[in-house]
Amino acid sequence: MTFIKMPDYDIYIESNELLNLQKYVKELYHEKKIYVVTDENVNQLYHQKLIHALPFFEVIFVVIKPGEHSKSIETYQKVISELIQKQMKRNHLLIALGGGVVGDLTGFVASTLYRGVKFIQIPTTLLAQVDSSIGGKVGIDLEQGKNLLGSFYRPLLVYIDPAFLETLSKREYANGLAEMIKAGLIGDKKLYHHLKSNEKVGVDEIVMAIQVKRALVLIDPYDHKERMYLNFGHTFGHAIEKKHHYDTYKHGEAISYGMLMALEIGMKRHETHFELYQEVKSLLLERGLVKEPLLKIFDYKDEIVHDKKYLSEGLHFVIVPKVGEVKSIILEDSDLL
Length: 337
Ligand SMILES: NC(=O)c1ccc[n+]([C@@H]2O[C@H](COP(=O)([O-])OP(=O)(O)OC[C@H]3O[C@@H](n4cnc5c(N)ncnc54)[C@H](O)[C@@H]3O)[C@@H](O)[C@H]2O)c1
What we know:
Blueprint: E1 2-5, E2 10-13, H1 21-28, E3 33-39, H2 40-53, E4 58-64, H3 73-85, E5 93-98, H4 100-112, E6 118-123, H5 126-132, E7 137-142, E8 145-152, E9 157-160, H6 170-187, H7 189-197, H8 203-219, H9 234-243, H10 251-268, H11 274-286, H12 301-304, E10 310-311, E11 314-319, E12 327-330
Parallel strand pairs: 2-9, 3-4, 3-5, 5-6, 6-9
Antiparallel strand pairs: 1-2, 7-8, 10-11, 11-12
Helix pairs in contact: 3-4, 5-6, 5-8, 6-7, 6-8, 6-10, 9-10, 10-11
The protein binds nicotinamide-adenine-dinucleotide.
């Protein structure tokens, strides 16, 4: 078992079919009822496994539709109503069992229902295991853009079991690799080089990606400065997702195009070498995360003006001059031509 300590909670990483989950939950929670939010796909695959893993508890499920469209006000209200109708009380525990959509939505429900209830993340996608379940950001999308309504809310515990990844589609697996490639590019050369030469990842690489995020979250928990480095590729990534109505591109695919756009801006600024751009492009093409012809910066220019990170002094934008090196710039109109 690998164990990563966050200031207020622990992250357990172990590939053993949820064997120790009940033990960890019992240490932190002393009621009988547990409420689980999951999506239809995960429910079909893991409903019984979760019940078997928590025999001491009465486990009550709320199941949502899969996909980004569920990170909405409507689903948020539906989940809250169902939890109340199923007698969830303030002292009960909520578990998010699923990918980043379930994690972000459930975390936001947990942070607001009865002004906050206990919450555990069990991430089941690679993206959620290496990224979205870590760092306490939870939220939902609005019509005007992604993650516009949200909060910082820490779970009691994050339980990562890489065995969940065995049922992921190739596309979803690659989706998670995109956030790992980002983590490598901004903060861990060794991880980046591993991902360049291997399609599969194991516990070690999951831990490396989490450590990159952890380090930045610890310095800047509320996203004022260093944590923004994690947004490498995300300014354009979010614009791409929004412009295509969250249908065409998965999050990891959108941020892959976004990373290439950010590297291109780095090149225009004479900060990033063409060789790095080419190398990352080949890697993302090989993993099926981007396709040629690539999306173009100019076509997403209007969307990024509405980015929530557009502060009064302009849009802070992250570039990577070299692998493992990161820099924040203020985006100029000339960068977008
Ligand atoms: N909070 C954060 O810090 C943070 C960071 C990065 C991304 N995110 C958010 O994460 C979301 C994307 O997360 P995602 O990529 O996990 O998407 P997702 O939750 O939609 O999951 C992707 C698909 O995989 C299916 N699935 C989940 N686990 C499975 C399993 N073990 N086997 C088979 N199928 C499985 C789901 O049903 C879904 O269809 C986005 O909304 C993004 O904004 C949040």
